[in-house]
Amino acid sequence: MTIPSIMDVEVCGKTLVVRADLNVPVEAGKVTDATRITRFAGGMKPLLERGARLVIITHFGRPTPNVLDPAFSVNTLRPALSDALGVPVKFSDTCATNAAKVRADALANGEVLLCENLRYNPGETTNDPGFAAALAELGEFYVNDAFSCAHRAHASTEAIARLMPSYAGPLLMEELSMLGAALEDPERPSVALVGGAKVSTKIAVLKNLVAKVDHVIIGGGMANTFLFANGAPMGKSLHEADQIDTVREIQSLAQRANCALHLPEDVVAAKDFAAHARHDIVRNDACPADAMILDAGPRALTRFQSILAECRTILWNGPLGAFEIQPFDQSTMRLAQSAADLTRQGLAVSVAGGGDTVAALNVAGVADDFTYVSSAGGAFLEWLEGKTLPGIAALQDAAKAA
């Protein structure tokens, strides 16, 4: 089902209730990383130039409902948002009241109103229809431009879309397009790199991916669990001894789908989990009893690089080792650089997402070289699992009903 885009609608003189995700880091009252704000603003500028009136709603942090803690006021974000949009941003200290509606109704073409934190009201997270109806009173069209919140059935992402003409914003459309190209209709061969600490948190991801891609490279603590299931000693390594049956099931699903699973053939082992700790390169079945596996080894890295070089689509979620500390960041950093090189040469489409993944790509200095890097966390993970996201389903249902 095609989701209608707000970019295809005549918006001059129309008031758009835009769900953004402006949940950005703030220290001492100032935004320290405005990436999300900048990306959001880039999509909104063309709408403003066409004469739209924007009422922006967003959450910010996790305030206690009904407690108006100023530390969670979105007014803190207004200077950064004004700079990014290039226009002054007005402010409403409420988001679903008659006072907010009065301010929204007073907007002129090309003007912007930022409404107070949605999560001050308990109706946001309970998907309260009354709260959603009050938000819908703020404008004529609803625009969801927050893919990173689409996995939550909240009033501002799900219920409101069923109450008024509803559309996807430019960022959400871009996200759906890129993610769909990477997983639903990838250029072949395709490879997914899945890392992280625990298999148990990504069972659904792995089950879905082995049916969608040609290769899956497994790293991090997850790889340890797979190696353990194959009989390798773990020493003090992070692994899940109770997930052997799960590993067997994933291996069986991969075999039936003709998807090749790849584990590191050698590993970096150390006795201490500390920066620059003394370490050794050992076979994947030779971890000493008093050591722990903290990264994939050089032979594994070379093998993984050769797999990437064979593929036209690269999907990445999760680091391959303890990338936060050196020298156990090497497989993640160098493989990220290889993926970036392939992308720059036009040899592969690369899509990455997840908090640790984005952090690792930023450390490696290659985030801008990937075809697309999703800022979504939980929504990206649930999409990898093949789940229907409530915010997306609401837009699809609204399109059917139109």
Question: Could you walk me through the main structural features you see in this protein, from its secondary elements to its overall organization?
Answer:
By secondary structure, the protein is α/β, with parallel strands linked by helices. The protein folds into two domains: 176 residues, Rossmann fold (3-Layer(aba) Sandwich), CATH 3.40.50; 195 residues, Rossmann fold. Strand 12 and strand 13 form a beta hairpin. Helix 1 crosses helix 2, helix 8 packs across helix 14 and helix 9 packs across helix 10. It catalyses: (2R)-3-phosphoglycerate + ATP = (2R)-3-phospho-glyceroyl phosphate + ADP.
Features:
alpha/beta, Rossmann fold, six-stranded parallel beta sheet, 15 helices, 37% helix
Give the CATH superfamily of the largest domain.
Answer: Phosphoglycerate kinase, N-terminal domain
How would a crystallographer describe the biggest sheet?
Answer: 6 strands, parallel
Unreliable parts: none
CATH level 1 class label of the largest domain: Alpha Beta
**SS elements, strand count:** 17
Question: Approximately how much helix is present in the residues?
Answer: 25-40%
- Alpha-carbon distance between the termini? 13 Å
Work out the radius of gyration: 23 Å
Give the tally of structural domains: 2
Strand order of the largest sheet: 5-6-4-1-7-8
Mean pLDDT score: 95
* Category from helices, strands and their pairing: alpha/beta
Number of helical segments with 4 or more residues: 15
Task: Tell me, briefly, the overall form.
Answer: elongated
CATH fold description of the largest domain:
Rossmann fold
How does CATH name the architecture of the largest domain?
3-Layer(aba) Sandwich
Beta fraction: 15-25%
- What is the assembly state of the chains in this entry? single chain
Subunit structure: Monomer.
Family: Belongs to the phosphoglycerate kinase family.
GO molecular function, one term: ATP binding
Subcellular location: Cytoplasm
